[in-house]
Amino acid sequence: MAISRHPSPSNSQGNRPDAHMSRSHAVCAISGEFVRVHSPKLFVAACTLATAALTGVPAQAATAPAGQGPATSGPQTLGAKTGQVCGPPFVNGDPNLGPVVLPRTGLVAKILDGYVRYGGLSPERFLERYFIPSANSYRFPQDSGFAHSGGYTNGRPLIRTAKLPLGYKVDRFGGESGAFLAPFGTPFPERSLRPNNLNNVPGDPHLCNYHAYRVIRSFLVDAGPAASAFQMPGQGEQFHTLAKYIPGAPANPDGEVSIGWLADNGYLERLN
């Protein structure tokens, strides 16, 4: 068992950002698996959890037979009665509600530890609150999903410019056309993501649509804590990749540069 620390992104002036960002990211390394810890005092518990996960003890978020962590091959098939890890099948047959079967071992299972589907709401009530049927889309939080000062929706968005340093590891649940990243291993509830972010994508080998990266060329991002959304508490750090920070990068209508472009053009190295 080894304890190591990830560097924290610095701000655009080269200094460490605020306390939320500057806190040490201790990680427990066991057989190549990592789990992020916010406080040095918690690393023993985190390592114990990681060890349990790697030795086959079910993760708390699990509701189905064992799956697997990040994969370079197709999703594991568990049989006709249970389906595939991260779907199909989907809850109530609706992909918007996410997969029936979640992984019980591996890195993704550790990230899902403590995840309660729909924040305890029924699937029907969850859709009533967050889904717009006429648009076939979820209702997303304002200000790119960043939290606001004082926790008020009309407060100042807690957004700053930060520089992701060489070697820094990040990840995301979602395809590479998106423009958001998180520090590697951020717990799923802290990301404030929709349940369908966990869905497997046909033809894509990434289990639970999970992608991990290492920064191989430093670049600037908008950074800050995620607002609570989709019955998730949020407050995990998120990084918004914007074309204005990267000369020559193509921008979508929202001014974003995709994660796929960053990986294809020497800024990010794909890890899975």
TrEMBL record:
Start and end residues of each TNT domain: 164-270
Alphabetized GO MF terms: NADP+ nucleosidase activity
Pfam annotation, one family: TNT
Stretches for region Disordered: 1-20, 62-81
Ranges of Low complexity composition bias in the record: 62-76
Stored InterPro entries: Fungal_surface_NADase, TNT
PANTHER family per UniProt: TNT DOMAIN-CONTAINING PROTEIN
Name recorded for this polypeptide: DUF4237 domain-containing protein
